Amino acid sequence: MFHWKKILPITLHGSLRQLYTSRLLQKAVIINGKEIANEIQNELRATVQSWINNDKKRPKLVAIKIGNDPASKVYVERKMKAANFIGIENYTIHLEENSSQQDLLKEIDYLNKDENVDGILVQLPLPKHMNEHEVCQAIVPNKDVDGFHLQNLGSLASNSNGIIPATALAVKELIIRSNIETFGKNAVVVGRSKHVGLPIALLLHADSRDEIGALDMTTTICHRHTPHTELEKLTKLADLIVVAAGIPGLITKEMEM
Q1: Of 50, 86, 118, 223, whose CB has the highest number of CB atoms within 10 Å?
Q2: pLDDT one-digit tens code per residue, 126-158
Q3: Residues in domain Tetrahydrofolate dehydrogenase/cyclohydrolase NAD(P)-binding (predicted)?
């Protein structure tokens, strides 16, 4: 089966990320995520073609979208467009907003058992009547391209090989490809969600000598209940700030210096 570990950073496409150095250096490094995403996609296109040239099956990704949320529609279309570019066969299953969770789980179970399907992606957020945790755990770990299954998150926490959540892996790629020094440096991650903030923090702080090749940083996680004065104090001491809180303008210029 095709391994999804190196495919995930394609979700960087079309985005910008900003990572700030400490007040000791008194400068900011602005990173163009779109440029790096294009670079990664070209590399992955060559990887997939090499895989196929070795008489192996073209990888197949299936996305499931529930309802008609405009943002979800855009996200899925971008992912499928990237998959098309790098040579991954793909299609999207559309379920109605009022579909039951059981309907969704049946689709997932069918895809889990389909040997022609290598990866499954359920677009979040789900309708309110569905349980996100139960749905994410229904996907078998080796087809869980989002890396949200407990087995994959556990592998990340133990510095073992597994599928890493896309945003966390994207942050790592941004840092590495921008030649930002991380060994022994201080990082602040603003946001603690199990799908974004926590995986980012785990990748930043883990030992680079282990299987996942992490970044050896001293990492602090802040969140909505971190007092503003404490947040400002921590960000001023940080060599690297990654904001994943979904609140525009949360980090001001004064908090970075």
Answers
A1: 118
A2: 999 999 999 999 999 999 999 999 999 999 998
A3: 165-255
Per annotation, catalytic residue among 41, 60, 118, 123? 123
Give the pair of three-digit tokens for residue 132: 């996100």
Alpha-carbon dihedral sign for residues 89, 7, 121, 135: positive
Q: Which residues contact 40 (CB under 8 A, 6 or more apart)?
A: 9, 10, 12, 173
C-alpha to C-alpha distance for 239 and 245, rounded to whole angstroms: 19
Cα angle: 187, vertex 216, 174; to 5 degrees: 65
Contacts of 127 (CB under 8 A, 6+ apart): 66, 67, 97, 98, 99
The question of whether 146 is a catalytic residue gets the answer yes
Q: Give the span between the Cα atoms of 32 and 29, in whole angstroms.
A: 10
Query: For the whole model, what pTM was predicted?
Result: 0.84
What's the first-to-final CA gap in the chain, in angstroms? Answer: 48
- The tokens for 245 are 């809180």
Task: Write down the catalytic residue from 143, 146, 185, 239.
Answer: 146
